Amino acid sequence: MRIIRLLLVFMFVGMGVTMAQAKKGTLATAKINTPTVQCEMCKGTIERYMYREDGIQSCKVDFKKKVTTVKYYTDRTNIENVKTAIANAGYDADDVTANEDSYKALPTCCKKPEDGGGQPTKKKQ
Ligand SMILES: [Cu+2]
Q1: Ligand 1 centroid to 42 CA: how many Å?
Q2: Of 37, 52, 108, 114, which residue is least crowded by CB atoms under 10 Å?
Q3: How remote is the CA of residue 27 from the centroid of ligand 1, in Å?
């Protein structure tokens, strides 16, 4: 009986430690240049992709400044993965070039101006 109780105590202590470790993972913030974002929709696309990634705590796309701020857990992912995830969504991320197929699948307004994207100048007419 005593052994069982002791085992239970150990189990709880063990669980507590594991949970504490899982929570501990260091959070890092990265500001990534995403020069090809054009509009609110791009923001939505990238953020949707990012929340599917493992280890991403939050993602904010500022399409006016063309900067994406990502908070991620360093024990679960790394900056290269973060950039690759943005590239997979169809956007350039610092030195990582956008995945071509994803870029082609973007709505026209979300493409680079030379491909007919960046609508504000066109709407004026
Ligand atoms: Cu867009």
Answers
A1: 4
A2: 114
A3: 28
- Going from the Cα of 16 to the center of ligand 1, the distance in angstroms, rounded, reads 45
Helix (H) or strand (E) holding 34: none
CA distance 15 to 20: 9
- Measure 40 CA to ligand 1 centroid, in angstroms: 6
C-alpha 90 to ligand 1 mean position (Å): 11
Sign of CA dihedral 23, 31, 110, 121: positive
Pick from 32, 110, 29: nearest CA to 68? 32
Domains and CATH numbers, the chain: 27-110 (3.30.70.100)
pTM (2 d.p.): 0.76
Check residue 53 and give left, alpha or beta (phi > 0: left; psi -120 to 50: alpha): beta
Model confidence over 47-103: pLDDT tens digits? 999 999 999 999 999 999 999 999 999 999 999 999 999 999 999 999 999 999 999
Neighbours of ion ligand 1 (CB under 5 A): 38-39, 41-42, 110
